[in-house]
Design goal:
Elements (H helix, E strand, L loop, with lengths): L1 H10 L1 H23 L3 E5 L20 E6 L16 E3 L2 E4 L1 E3 L13 E7 L8 H11 E12 L14 H9 L10 H7 L11 H9 L1 H4 L9 H10 L3 E7 L3 E7 L5
Helix pairs in contact: 1-2
Length: about 260
């Protein structure tokens, strides 16, 4: 109840009820229809966005969820123990893998019912290469759900949204994950006031230069138009999309093959 009154005060009655309706619609219709008792893979998780207390309550209803991270150690999670499996909210949901998002070595193709990626795509230097690989693991008619941050809500607010043609160029040129093409732009426009964990400018610069090890950089800035263009490029059927206060969400299905 306190959260409800706080939302009324912050956002107004109409926006608050719109949010409540959307939350109910998503979690009572959209999510169960596509994720209940299904087997999936999450790239770069776990994420609060998919927990019971988040926007999309996916974790509690899946049959199995594997996870993949680029390293056993990173700034977002505790040290990963592969023997424990993929642990979400204290519960093992599936297997844990360590692999780059553009490679996903050793994972089964045409196997997963769905793939999740939350606030992850911006950390990938060659997102089209990554998504192409993700789709290879997805069953025909499977669903991919991507969440990307809205620049207005974070330290990227001074940067421009990436042109889709730039993503195509990165893909065609096989840009690798050690790429620092956007470093100058990031150092110039990154709002450190909104990123206290980055430290001062010199600390942020040193961390950024070591990005291949830490993957903290936001290589590109996305909006719903670019996310939709990505789906169209891969001939996906867009099933649902919405711009939340802090993030864009897009869900699309891999077309059936006969």
């Amino acid at each position: 109840m306190k959260k409800l009154f706080s939302s009324f005060k912050r956002n107004g009655v109409i926006k608050t009820f719109d949010y409540i309706f959307l939350s109910v619609y998503i979690n009572l219709y959209i999510i169960p229809k596509k994720f209940k008792n299904k087997t999936g893979l999450e790239i770069g998780g776990p994420s609060r966005f998919f927990s019971k207390g988040g926007i999309c309550h996916i974790y509690p209803i899946v049959a199995k969820l594997d996870g993949v991270n680029f390293s056993e150690t990173n700034i977002w999670t505790d040290k990963i123990d592969l023997t424990e499996g993929y642990i979400v909210d204290g519960k093992k949901l599936g297997n844990q893998f360590i692999s780059d998002a553009t490679k996903l070595s050793g994972l089964p193709e045409n196997y997963y019912d769905f793939i999740l990626s939350c606030n992850n795509i911006e950390h990938i230097a060659n997102p089209l290469k990554a998504i192409e690989r993700w789709l290879a693991l997805l069953k025909s008619d499977g669903i991919i759900l991507i969440v990307a941050p809205k620049k207005e809500a974070n330290f990227d607010h001074n940067r421009k949204v990436v042109e889709f043609s730039h993503l195509i160029s990165d893909y065609n040129n096989n840009i690798l994950e050690d790429d620092l093409t956007h470093l100058e732009e990031i150092l110039l426009l990154h709002d450190l006031k909104l990123d206290p964990l980055a430290g001062n400018f010199e600390q942020f610069k040193q961390r950024s230069l070591d990005n291949f090890r830490n993957r903290c950089l936001h290589h590109h800035v996305f909006d719903m138009t670019v996310l939709s263009e990505i789906c169209n490029y891969f001939n996906l059927n867009i099933y649902f999309k919405h711009a939340f206060r802090n993030d864009y969400l897009i869900m699309a299905t891999k077309k059936k093959t006969y």
